[in-house]
Amino acid sequence: MKKKPPTQEYCRLLTLELIFLWHAFPTCTLEELRPYLDVCDMQTDPKVFHLKCLLEGSIFKELGETQMAIQCLDESIARHHGLKEDYHVPAFAQFELASVYMRDPQME
Q1: Rounded CA separation 35/19 (Å)
Q2: What global pTM score does this model have?
Q3: Spatial separation of the C-alpha atoms in residues 69 and 7, rounded to whole Å
Q4: Cα dist. 86→26, 49, 64, 78, 98 in Å?
Q5: Distance of alpha carbon 1 from alpha carbon 103, whole angstroms
Q6: CATH T-level topology, domain 8-103
Q7: CA dist., res. 18 & res. 36, Å (int)
């Protein structure tokens, strides 16, 4: 059985993952971050929703939208449950959540 080539949307998501892994989101301006959310919104394959949610959460964190960040990061962890790949995603989601809560210890 022949494997399908990755979609353009998936390749864009992987590019965002590299930007995230290089810790470059904090260096981006608000105007640069907003289009990254559009890339996440383009994703239609449920198999990558855990990664999509991680990236959205990290972007929302940098935009100062704390509640959206927490919601996306929690969703990333939940969507990864039962998957047998991308074990780094829930670990990074936990790290991002910790950094959100460290910024505002009163956050629930």
Answers
A1: 13
A2: 0.94
A3: 26
A4: 23, 11, 27, 13, 20
A5: 49
A6: 1.25.40
A7: 12
**Burial zone of 80 (CB within 10 Å; 0-12 exposed, 13-18 middle, 19+ buried):** buried
Q: Torsion over CA of 32, 36, 37 and 39, rounded to 10 degrees? A: 150
Q: Which of 1, 94, 89, 83 is nearest to 47 (CA)?
A: 83
| pLDDT (tens digit per residue) in 68-91 | 999 999 999 999 998 899 999 999
Residue from 70, 46, 47, 44 nearest 57 by CA: 70
Amino acid identity at 22: W
Sign of the four-CA dihedral 9, 14, 16, 17: positive
pLDDT tens digits, one per residue of 34-71: 999 999 999 999 999 999 999 999 999 999 999 999 99
